[in-house]
Amino acid sequence: MKVFISYRREDSAGHSGRLHDSLQSHFGADNVFMDLSDIDSGTNFVDAIQTAIKSSDVVLAVIGKQWLTCSSAGKRRLDLPNDFVRTEIGVALEHGVPVIPVLVQGAGMPLAPSLPEPIKQLATHDAHDLSDERWGYDVGRLIEATEKLAGQPVRSQRRPLIAAVAALLVIAVAIGVFFLVRTRPIALAGNWSAEVTYDWGDKYTERFSFTVDGHAVSGTASFLGVRRGIVDGSVNGDRVVFKTRTEELGGAPSGLEHRYSGTMTGDTIGFTMQTEGGSSSVPIQFTAKRDVGTR
After folding, report:
1. Within the chain, which residues score under 50 in pLDDT?
2. E-strand stretches of the chain
3. 190-290 topology per CATH
């Protein structure tokens, strides 16, 4: 399908160029013709227009606010027999090529009395508005009208819609996989150990034994080399959190609570541990490594 765009540079060059690009994206670069300015020297202008328009399925006449009033040497351009816009539209009407007036810049449709005789019939054609605010929508409607007028299948809305739905499905699948991976329990179960230096300078080998049931974590984690039971443990993706308590110290309740938060990467877990209720609440950071053979 081939489309010919008729326009006046002084009136609507910018809008016509934008329309040209939009139509090329839909119909293809070789099927949208806009400008005869590159006609070779010596070529008969009218013959060149007739050839281009006769091979087109639809002519789009872009009309801006100055389309009627543009003048040359004190005369209105449309009244000059050799005016190229008048010639383009006249040839299309004469040879039965469908013409769609395309109104831009808020221009109104010219009335028959304001048009020269060869193109008065243009006033009876249905016009399409192109607004800057909803350009994509208006161009889509124009494409539908163009294809319908040329007897082609209407496809301007269907293809982008199918492409958009396909893109959304791909995104939805990717998001689903991401959250499935993020929320699936990691391979945490087993024994781990870490060399931990506390803020007062003492160093201990702390040992961790994890059991995983769904997202719940139980087991033991040592503090100052003494194993303590894990409470409120959970794992979500690569994140693991739990608490232990020091129930007594020197025979009396101590009220110490140790909060662990870790991120697993392969066979290591980067932990931050903070003790609450004791003389020091400085967070301790350390890395636990999986014991060989406990994967």
Report:
1. 38, 154-157, 180-185, 251-253
2. 3-6, 32-33, 58-63, 71-72, 75-76, 99-103, 128-129, 190-197, 203-213, 216-223, 226-229, 231-236, 239-249, 252-265, 268-276, 284-290
3. Lipocalin (2.40.128)
